[in-house]
Amino acid sequence: MITWRGFLKRFLSDPVAIGAGIVLLILILMAVLAPVIAPQNPYDLLQIDIMDSEMPPSWQPGGDPRFLLGTDSQGRGVLSTIMYGTGISLLIGIGAVIVQGILGVTLGLWAGYRGGWVDSFLMRLADIQMSLSTLMIAIIVLALFQAAFEASVYADYAIIMLILIIGIAEWPKFARTVRSSVLGEKNKEYVDAARVIGLPARKVMWGHILPNALTPVMVISTIQVAEAIMTEAALSFLGLGMPVDRPSLGSLIRSGFEFVFSGSWWITLYPALVLIALILALNLLGDWLRDVLNPKLRRGDD
């Protein structure tokens, strides 16, 4: 098993991993510290002036030093909305993966350990789930939710709905990953020893097998956060994600898309660049984790 020293050594010897880690750290800090460091609170109507709408970045003719990256159609600073929007995108991505993990790990662990009809039933259920597009499921559910409730109600529960829908739709990826690891672990000697001394199945599964099956879960979690953020961005771009008054990166891109051809390109461009950087950093770190934690790819110096 790779040690923390070997893990850190591999990380510091990989320029791509270092670069991705720095970018991700900057974006996380920017999102977490947004209420402190953002020039403007885009949720505070007292700080927004419609007369400031569609100002170009500060270095362009007509720009204002108060708005480094310009303003959107509502007079909100693009830099401030990006800071707050990144936080919402990360919250939805991480929350959705937590839901996926709870469902997927539990069902995958149960299926792999029990086997038989339990395994067959859960894996066929996973096959059906994976045959359906997450985006399609989300579009149908969110469209029905928007039609059934008022816009104010939808705005209050949009984050929770997105987390639950994306999380529930993607649980099979965790379940299949954990099941494969459990199948490789459950017949080993330490599991047989736990059974011999009379430990109940629940303790054998959660206390002995699961800790040895978590390595691939770490890898898939990083990649799934990126996928959840992309799904939320796509839904928001279609008008089914976060409302305009509580923007994520996806809804920021959508709100500025109609102004691209009128010359206000900065409203869409900068949120899009941040979204690309966030997704790329997460995917690169996920790929690096997969290579490092794969025993077939690890070197002896770890």
Automatic annotation (TrEMBL):
* Alphabetical keyword list: Cell membrane, Membrane, Transmembrane, Transmembrane helix, Transport
Which terms in the GO cellular component ontology are assigned? Answer: plasma membrane
Q: Where's the ABC transmembrane type-1 domain?
A: 86-286
Would you say which domain of life the source belongs to? Bacteria
Where is this chain primarily localised?
membrane
Recorded hits in Gene3D superfamilies, A to Z, give: MetI-like
Localization per record: Cell membrane
Protein family = Belongs to the binding-protein-dependent transport system permease family.
Name under which the protein is recorded: Dipeptide transport system permease protein DppC
Q: Which organism is it from?
A: Roseovarius litorisediminis
